[in-house]
Design goal:
Order of helices and strands: EEEEEHEEEEEEEEEEEHEEEE
Radius of gyration: 22 Å
Number of strands: 20
Largest sheet: 18 strands, mixed
Structural class: mainly beta
Strand content: over 45%
Helix content: under 10%
């Protein structure tokens, strides 16, 4: 008997035409580090009191899919996930802004060594987080919510299209601008920046079915924290005076090729802690929120490389 090995696993992804229709045709291979996609069910427990104290009824209730996919960000491989996160699509100029149209996905989890396949459908990216720091790849986690899952002994998709194989982005190739993108706005004291987009997707259940007929969602809340070395009062004063600013982060492959740029056009800092944690350099921790900007028409704009 063979046991499934993580090293023999793979994910593939397809775009659905609507919430209930599983993606058809070819799927694209999806490079990943870890994933926790799973089907869960609520439990319905009988409450009858029996003199022997033993319960008689336990049934399955509402079904839903949840879990996360953790990846090293790179060009092209995750554009469909970014579109699902942004509720929008990349425009002809290769930019995407926050929108209002959900993009539904199907993802197949293949245990190739034992020929078992789990097909998750009706998936959306409920939230996505990005972590940029020295000595690491650009860490991205897509938290998913979905409709249902099917288990099979054969692949449900068509031919799996190979991933383009682009190199992951790292923290050594790119730039960070604060307060603008002109000469002098590039900031070289950032030790890390983390931000997330939260859509708050959730299933809406109805009488007569254990599968949600649709998903509801909330606002696109974009928050994060930038940590910088403590060299002056400029950023602290922006917090004290409630001065709005902007952050633009570009990440790229080794050598600076194929960059992706994340623009937070209207940022407000909501803290400026300057702890003394050890004898070494002090840092300023700046939690922030990104708000709607009337010029860009969004609170986050992503520009991809082609």
């Amino acid at each position: 008997m063979a046991f499934a090995q993580g090293s023999r696993s793979s994910l593939s992804i397809g775009v659905q035409s609507d919430f209930t229709t599983v993606a058809t045709g070819n799927y694209n291979n999806l490079p990943f580090k870890t994933h926790s996609l799973t089907l869960s069910k609520e439990r319905l427990e009988g409450q009858d009191i029996q003199s022997d104290r033993m319960p008689r009824v336990d049934r399955h209730g509402n079904k839903s899919v949840s879990g996360s996919v953790e990846v090293d960000m790179r060009m092209a491989s995750y554009d469909s996930l970014l579109e699902s996160l942004m509720l929008s699509s990349f425009a002809t100029d290769d930019t995407i802004t926050v929108g209002t149209t959900p993009k539904y996905l199907s993802i197949e989890d293949a245990a190739n060594d034992i020929s078992q396949f789990r097909l998750f459908s009706g998936l959306v990216v409920s939230s996505g987080s990005f972590s940029i720091a020295p000595n690491q790849m650009i860490q991205t986690t897509f938290d998913m919510i979905g409709r249902t899952m099917a288990q099979s002994g054969s692949s449900s998709g068509g031919t799996i299209v190979a991933d383009p194989g682009n190199a992951p982005f790292d923290s050594y190739n790119g730039s960070i601008f604060e307060g603008g993108v002109a000469s002098g706005d590039e900031i070289a004291t950032v030790t890390s920046i983390d931000f997330s987009v939260t859509n708050s997707f959730a299933p809406t259940f109805v009488v007569g079915s254990d599968i949600a007929p649709q998903l509801e969602y909330g606002r696109a809340v974009i928050e994060g924290t930038m940590t910088v070395y403590y060299e002056d009062a400029a950023l602290i004063n922006k917090f004290i005076n409630e001065t709005e600013s902007s952050i633009q982060v570009s990440v790229a492959e080794p050598g600076g090729s194929n960059p992706y740029t994340f623009l937070l056009p209207r940022v407000k800092y909501n803290g400026a802690e300057v702890p003394v944690a050890n004898p070494q350099s002090r840092t300023v921790q700046l939690p922030f929120v990104s708000l709607y900007d009337s010029t860009e028409g969004t609170n986050l704009k992503i520009t991809r490389s082609t």
